[in-house]
């Protein structure tokens, strides 16, 4: 018999497949290199305050500290992770059952997931070629059909930056049509390439950021939306009443202090170095068809041995992400860059791997 809940739930929710986050997929392992987290904790300070009062309605001190970090005056607001930013933007600007968003696949799955959850359709204008760059003409042509264009730079799971000139062309071509969200979750691994500076010129540009990656604070849940006042006016209507738990807010303020930023920069440089050493150590393996250039804390590897490699690493306690569910990434495995010791171990394992019959 159909349950009451099943009778009441809208069709869009009944069809929805829960987002397959690394935690949800779970599994067993020793080295967790499947969620693009920083492998070891970074400690920014300790607090023993009381938590009996509701937190700030909008943590202005955090927003101010983040603007300073980004060297910008454009309005910033803290939310519980970049994922909440994506959800908030879809709910703010899209009408369920009527509106559409546009994405360029392969890309971060949460854009389409948040749209699906709201019965908002997703138009896909896939990334082009082996360099995974934007199909600017295709996007501009379809933009009038969409309310929001979600682009990710550097892109997850391909690892590359989108060309700044292409982003500008998209912004130029869609100014009267759609909001353009650039998800810069991994930008600290190539900070000079940020497009935050373009917000002042393009009123339709929104940048989302996170402290989950380079700052190593995935458990604290802090992300940011940076956009002009006109956009913020609507976003702030829907923002949860207490968007940031106080205990998170304190850690975030420490992380965004000059000392905190220095710690994050040092740890980011270590990850980048571990990435180069790792790539150099494995690149001669003939069964690896391609290691994609990476501007992030992960690398995407193309090999026909993808399932075998994924399982082999898993048997050795190393959990990675098989991207084969994405048609464009049919033979790809994504490996997060952990500490240099971990990556030396993973490189040794990969170099010891003997090719299995397909
Ligand atoms: C491209 C991209 N955007 C956003 C997020 C979500 O980040 P947060 O932890 O801030 O919700 C992720 C997490 O993996 C991501 O890869």
Automatic annotation (TrEMBL):
<dbReference type="Pfam" id="PF00155">
    <property type="entry name" value="Aminotran_1_2"/>
</dbReference>
<comment type="pathway">
    <text>Amino-acid biosynthesis; L-histidine biosynthesis; L-histidine from 5-phospho-alpha-D-ribose 1-diphosphate: step 7/9.</text>
</comment>
<comment type="similarity">
    <text>Belongs to the class-II pyridoxal-phosphate-dependent aminotransferase family. Histidinol-phosphate aminotransferase subfamily.</text>
</comment>
<dbReference type="GO" id="GO:0030170">
    <property type="term" value="F:pyridoxal phosphate binding"/>
</dbReference>
<dbReference type="InterPro" id="IPR015421">
    <property type="entry name" value="PyrdxlP-dep_Trfase_major"/>
</dbReference>
<comment type="subunit">
    <text>Homodimer.</text>
</comment>
<keyword id="KW-0663">Pyridoxal phosphate</keyword>
<dbReference type="InterPro" id="IPR005861">
    <property type="entry name" value="HisP_aminotrans"/>
</dbReference>
<keyword id="KW-0028">Amino-acid biosynthesis</keyword>
<dbReference type="InterPro" id="IPR001917">
    <property type="entry name" value="Aminotrans_II_pyridoxalP_BS"/>
</dbReference>
<keyword id="KW-0032">Aminotransferase</keyword>
<dbReference type="InterPro" id="IPR015424">
    <property type="entry name" value="PyrdxlP-dep_Trfase"/>
</dbReference>
<feature type="domain" description="Aminotransferase class I/classII large">
    <location>
        <begin position="49"/>
        <end position="346"/>
    </location>
</feature>
<protein>
    <recommendedName>
        <fullName>histidinol-phosphate transaminase</fullName>
        <ecNumber>2.6.1.9</ecNumber>
    </recommendedName>
</protein>
<dbReference type="InterPro" id="IPR004839">
    <property type="entry name" value="Aminotransferase_I/II_large"/>
</dbReference>
<keyword id="KW-0808">Transferase</keyword>
<dbReference type="GO" id="GO:0004400">
    <property type="term" value="F:histidinol-phosphate transaminase activity"/>
</dbReference>
<dbReference type="InterPro" id="IPR015422">
    <property type="entry name" value="PyrdxlP-dep_Trfase_small"/>
</dbReference>
<keyword id="KW-0368">Histidine biosynthesis</keyword>
<dbReference type="GO" id="GO:0000105">
    <property type="term" value="P:L-histidine biosynthetic process"/>
</dbReference>
